[in-house]
């Protein structure tokens, strides 16, 4: 899927642009004064926060010679390093903690289902908030560790860890009051765990039950990124005197997951899609959405950038977080879609088009993206269609 670059921003010298077009509908919960983290606990969530040599090969339960391609997704979550990265993402984890601890009225004496429980951290939060019982479903080998964690922390009488796929498990109870899950992937929909949450919702959630989080919104903006594109993509035009453009065509189809410097942003933001997890159907994860991005300064455009927000609207006070380039960095970062063309846009001009997002037919956990764009500006009159594959 995406490659990573150093976060040195773009080559533009323009000052930061005040963005007045992005709706302020979510609250970054970790900013609350009474939840301020000690400075030593706020650690980087990427390579600096862990040793890849130590974590990349650490697998719960050892190897499995019989695994198939269908098991790779779940096996990847048997690696300790993945869970370390997610837990050290304080935007992610602290938001869930605040949602649960500051809204105990939602959880008191309720039956909770934790979909994709991992280490069981969300289940532990729910149990501590007064849940009557929590069923934590985890398909990877991490389920064995989650059982130990639950027992070690004295919650065995409240939390039941169930190992297996949600679609294949039978709960000891007919219905649950709450479904909680951290299902979001890169570009919001990569890995498509949302379908699993919807399956659980349809099968087990009571009529007046709640899903946390219950809203997710996908946004797009445009950036200048000459330095990276020249170094990593245009590089293939001439490799020691040889034409390797065939690799360039493949590399540009692969979205980059990385942190975008806000100084690179050239246009406003556009909402592509808001998903209501309590009401949506499984097929709604595939969609086509139009966009119109207005330039806030005269500059070049090398790529579009997608990010998402999530909201917990059932709380006493609206809570949530953003993964946008102007927000605090998360392990999701942003998703960069490079254009084959370099667009020259003047302040006030509009880059219009549409983005089509769909599940890959061979592997529904992968995402196919088709981008159509058109600029009819003073310096650039150009249109194009590009296809991207998140694998």
Automatic annotation (TrEMBL):
Signal peptide interval: none
Annotated Low complexity bias: 7-21
Domain of life where this protein originates: Eukaryota
Keywords: Methyltransferase, Nucleus, S-adenosyl-L-methionine, Transferase
GO BP of this protein: methylation
Alphabetical list of SUPFAM superfamilies matching this protein: S-adenosyl-L-methionine-dependent methyltransferases
Region (Disordered): 1-62
Domain Protein arginine N-methyltransferase stretches: 214-378
Biased composition (Polar residues): 43-58
Subcellular locations according to the entry: Nucleus
Lyase found in the keyword field: no
Full protein name: Protein arginine N-methyltransferase domain-containing protein
Highest classification ranks of the organism: Eukaryota, Viridiplantae, Streptophyta, Embryophyta, Tracheophyta
